[in-house]
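Section 3.1: Structural characterization of target chains.
Under the original work plan, the team committed to producing a structural model for every single-chain target entering the pipeline before any wet-lab resources were allocated. The record below documents one such target. The sequence was received from the expression subgroup and is listed exactly as submitted; it comprises 470 residues.
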Amino acid sequence: MASDYKKELFSALQALQAEKGISQEDAIASLKDTLVTAYKKNFEGETNVEVDVDPEKQEFDLLQLKEVVTDGDMIDPYSEIYLADAREINPAYEVGDQIKFEINPRDFGRLAAQSGKNKSTQLIREKEKEAIHARYEGFEHEIVSARVAREDQRFLWVTMPDGQEAAMGDKDRIPGETYKTGDPIKVLINRVEDSATRGPQIYVSRTSPELVKRLFEQEVPEVYDGTVVIESIAREAGDRSKVAVRTTDTNLDPVGTLVGPRGSRVQAVVNELHGENMDIVEWVEDEAQYIANALNPAEVVDVIFNPNNDNEVTVIVPDYQLSLAIGKRGQNARLAAKLTKFKIDIKSETQAENDPQLQAILEESAKYADEDDQAEDNEALEDETEYTDANDYFAEDDKSAADNTNDQKASEAVKESSAAGSASPTVKPKMTEAENKEAQDEFAAALNNVDFDAILEEKEGEDDQKDDSK
């Protein structure tokens, strides 16, 4: 059975290990180092000390190693023992053997105990810092459900699920939000910093656009599994956010998916952010259309790109929608610019008509548009001409086939007349309606037997020969 003082020390070690969240191996290593350091500091001489620990039995022994020396040759009584004294313990000992003697830590005295405690505390804190940093550095930009702990002049402190405290600065707090101790709160782990004096410090945020994304991942399965992708978020925390989304499934409406049945999904996010408004817009590759979508709920007449700056556009809206497009204190235009990464200048139709520079750009754009349209028309005309030539060619072949058929019939008639003893061929009388119908059927049948591909190849060969002769 473990001695009482060992049980006390081991219980304290286990409690400290659980409280600080460090491994048993680190805790035992800390205990060993603490006891050895305390002993060497309070007992003179170059003592050779080691610690044996048995966690299952809650036993540990502090052992001093002494080397057996010849009688009269002792230099350090803390690390050596005479042969005669060693053989009183065991007659088998010889000079040079190592003997382990158990040391009672209570014999260290008050100073030794205090020294050991301080050393142990220091080592435990170092291990604690390492454990905290390792645990949280992989969770940066992840959402966590925490509770409000306390508030001081610099930070609002929240308690993480494992009991660790995290700090939220003023710039990471949503304006107007108030907190009471114990209130549940969802935060984004912004960063984990390591300080030589304070150790690792976790900083959390409620204003990061990333928090909005993580909240939608929790509320919308299609966002979590990647079917709906959040491409961009522009946020003015506590007031309004714009979220641009696209889908990898063409049968799915990305905006409707985030909004949810009767707005239930987006409302859950709004409630968590204490009433922050959410504008969900569709992200598309067409930049002009994307910019128009971003200015929702305003109606957009035209989006004009600055020919001298690819990141600047002028958006034209109906006169009566100018205020709506700009938004209260310019918020709608500002968020749309953040969302699309474009500098957006909004003008009413009247303002655009009276802007000479803008009109010049429009005229230039119209000119290029007309040239593009003309090029497309020319291309279409060329295609139509080629099609007509082909039809004419096949029509000529059809006529030739019909003439050949009629010539063949006339020749056969002459042969029949000659065979009948006629002195000269007779003119075939006019065909009756039935005979005409029969002739048309025969012509159609003959036409079906014509190999147009062969004729076309033959004609192309003739054309090539003509070109060569020229």
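Residues 360-469 form one domain.
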